[in-house]
Amino acid sequence: MKIQDAKVLITGGSDGIGLALTELLLQEGARVAIVGRNRERLDQQQARLNVPTIQADVSVEADVQRMLREALNHLGDVNVLVNNAAFAQGSSLLDLKLDEYQRQIDTNQTGAMLVARELAHHFVGRGGGTMINVGSVSGLRGVAGQTAYAASKFALRGMTQVWRSELRPHNVRVMYVAPSEVMTDFAAKGGRERTKDSGRRHCPDHP
């Protein structure tokens, strides 16, 4: 697929990695619609980048179904999904509260599944597509204080392997990418401080 032919839906697209990817894809000629929960941030990016925005909570099934309908209305088609919406809230096992754990699982794991399922139906119906699940190095090795986040990203890596096997016969490519440390506000939102060094690595950010 030529990048100019890409019609991309990006969840978690109003900031961080999702926003940076949106900017890059637009520069290369793709069409992009972004999804987020925060209306104010979505409005800011819509005004700045002139992209369609969709307010939705990926952990809510009805929101995800509406999200796809709106994306198709905006773009005419969707042939690429960047399944990126996630957040981290750090806590040691000794201090971990059930609601804190469940919120991360609901968004990062269940939400990723709901989005993937809806787009998989669409891709199979149209004869193909590309699904990119944004994982983390936390899905490859655990980090202290990140029980819920690591659990969600390990799960996403496993689900990606399953979906790849299931969808390959339908001409749907499924990929998992595992970013390490990137310079965004992700860590601060998760209750961790940014670190600074020689410039090679700045923020312990595992989207």
Automatic annotation (TrEMBL):
Q: What's the protein called, per UniProt? A: 3-alpha-hydroxycholanate dehydrogenase (NADP(+))
Please give the start and end residues of each transmembrane region. none
Keyword entries, A-Z: Oxidoreductase
Q: Does the keyword Oxidoreductase apply?
A: yes
What family is reported?
Answer: Belongs to the short-chain dehydrogenases/reductases (SDR) family.
Q: Matching PROSITE patterns, A to Z? A: ADH_SHORT (PS00061)
Membrane: is it a keyword of this entry?
no
Which lineage ranks, top first, belong to the organism behind this chain?
Bacteria, Thermotogati, Deinococcota, Deinococci, Deinococcales
Q: Which domain of life is it from?
A: Bacteria
**Domain Ketoreductase per the UniProt entry, residue ranges:** 6-185
Q: Name one Pfam family in it.
A: adh_short
- Which Gene3D superfamilies does this entry report, sorted A to Z? NAD(P)-binding Rossmann-like Domain
